[in-house]
Amino acid sequence: MSLMVISLILLFFTCLSLSFIEDRLTARDKVMIYLILGVAMILIAGLREVGSTPDTIAYEGMYYAKGSKLALMLREPSFNLIVSVLNSFSLGVSALFITYALISVPIHLSALWRMSKFPLLILTIYISYYYMMHEMVQIRCGVASGLFLWAIYYYVENKKKYTLLFILLGTFFHYSAIAGLVIFLFNDKLPQWQRIVLYSLVPIGLAVYFTHFDISIFVPDELGGQRLQKYRELKEQGLEDEQAGWMLETHILIWMNIVLYYASIYYHDYLAKHFKYTIIAIKLQAVGLCFLFFANGLSSVLGNRMNDYFSVVSILLWTGAVYAFQPIFISKIISNVLSTFRFISSILWYALALL
Q1: Alpha helices in the chain (DSSP H)
Q2: Per residue in 42-73, pLDDT tens?
């Protein structure tokens, strides 16, 4: 068992244990613990070796490759800037991982601290899956997702200009973040007709997903059809298979999120009274599922990556679900059992992905 895996296990179970007693901690102690855990998360994500997690080899190639002007244009400005600065100091690829961890982890932790009365519990939920996926695999998307959490925070606080700012800043780190602008179509109401639409999304989406129907054939060339055709060609040639990630058929964590999605819709009135991000999180989770289901026929990579970006809101839905049971201590037990299951599943999947 590698040092990285041991560190992850110690980090997770330390945070999980502390989440049970955070109500009895002083504000100062809670802040200190949160900061110490944050430093540990930066070190674990930043000091990993090439080959220790999926995508590290690809990032090593991107870091040292000279690349054409076209390749540089296709990469986000932040990545090119970071690589240029690090190369000017003759630093190795490890510096890239450290840099992204130093940027992404504080963004996530500061947003989660603001969004929950139980910061150590929500941190446990975050570490159980999204920390490993974003800070240790999809590091560019990880920064964008952290900024998206801040965008959601300000949207619910009715400070829309900050929402726009954080989404646009996210596109500087990952172009897909521009899709986050869809949040401006939503409000914090969930009338009957919207619940019917949200309920029907999964069965319709599964039918499209498993029949591999490519809905992009209806997109005119003038609206990006030619670019979409390139995705189809990559899929037909099998060039996207290694990047597609964990497929839905075996992705138990996505199925858990689907169950959570339905439960959150059903109990939305009660949950929203205790956790004000519930309604927006449900709708954004629905957007992520739309990408997962309806983009699969075109590109599994596109569908999975966009679902990963939007499904960062599942951290909020799992946190809101804590209010479903009383007393809160019982809810924390249930939440932490589920987080432990997600954590073990994530560790096993990343281990298998490296075989």
Answers
A1: 3-19, 27-46, 56-64, 69-74, 77-88, 93-115, 119-128, 130, 136, 139-156, 160-173, 192-211, 225-236, 252-266, 268-274, 278-294, 300-310, 314-320, 328-353
A2: 999 999 888 888 788 888 888 887 655 545 56
